[in-house]
Amino acid sequence: MAFYEENPGQIAEADIVVGIPTANEAGNIAGTAARVDKGLSEYFPDLRCAIIDCDNHSTDGTREAFFSAPGKASKLYISTEPGVGGKGRNIGNFFEKARQLNPKALVVLEADIKNLSPVWVRNLVAPVLKGAGFVCPLYERHKYEAFLSNSIVYPLFRCLYGRRVRQCNNGDYGFSPKLLDLYLNPPFRSELVDNSGIDLWMANIALASRLPIVQAIMGAPKLHRARGRFAELPVLFAEAVGTVFDLVEVYEDYWPQVKWSKPTALSGTDLQEVETPLPPADVNPERLHEKFLEDFDKYYRLWEHVYGSIVARKLQEIRSIGFQHFSFPTQTWMTILFDSVVAYREMSPSEKKDLVDGLLPLYVGKVLSYIKKTWRMSLQQAEEYIENECMMFEENKSYIVKMWTKGERG
The domain at 4-267 falls in which architecture? Predict the structure, then answer.
């Protein structure tokens, strides 16, 4: 439960509850809260609405800025204890407080969205009020954005759970109280989830819930603070991948039975595209190649042990190609991911950390390969390239099912 709470209006119930996780967001929270309020008042004027700042005991005036934002919706502020951080802990407090308000629909939105449109609030809430269990936004994206989603999350989630949900880890969602019950009594939670793994944890539970899933078209890119640079990539990568791998075991009675994937319903198709240019690509292929080579020898023995001699020899071949003709075959990448999932289950915590750390340079190599393959492609062509890769994962799902079953403990 939250360490600290302010509820000036003594709000006891709300039909729509929006949570905004924060950690020293004084420069963003007021504008975000105001735009959320505008969306709620414009599209749901007859419903009781509340906005909750789910904070990490910010010291920069985030709380004061939040309460200063104009609007009609009720405002509540909750916080973790001083010194306790992690987005997952913020969201966990949101779940508990939201449950007390007996909502009909819930939304989580990041605090630093620079171009948040009021209609985005409508697009995340409306499907839930019509019966959806989970609503995931579809933002316009540059082909060189969201590499983790393109290379790992989307192919694995689609293959394992049979749901084609393109942007599962973007930090913004709408969901039903039915899912809130699952989130408050989860089959699994970890320290990774308490930090940045929370987004994939929420999406994964939703995909395995059998509740209706909807993708909401937003009609514009999401402009916010850049994340995932090399300095913070190892931590973000480990928390995301570790969460995904942990949940594969949690749902081991479910995903082996899933055959192929199905399209996911769309909402917001009436939305006219906003003329917001996509942010420029910020990629440095030469630097990616350097990062791939830097840790090759450090992790080669681990790769040879986990993935076997055939894959190990293929990795040596990839290294020898050189930058100009660099390529990381999809078949090799798929085998590595499947074998990683299976091996991860039987490992100790320290071994799991080593495995995920060792997967990072291979992921960097895969990203470089994708960039080189799609450099002259349009956005649509690049999407088709990813879709074709996902089909390869689905076509070879029997491999991971066989390996998983073969490795089952007695």
Answer: Alpha-Beta Complex (3.90)
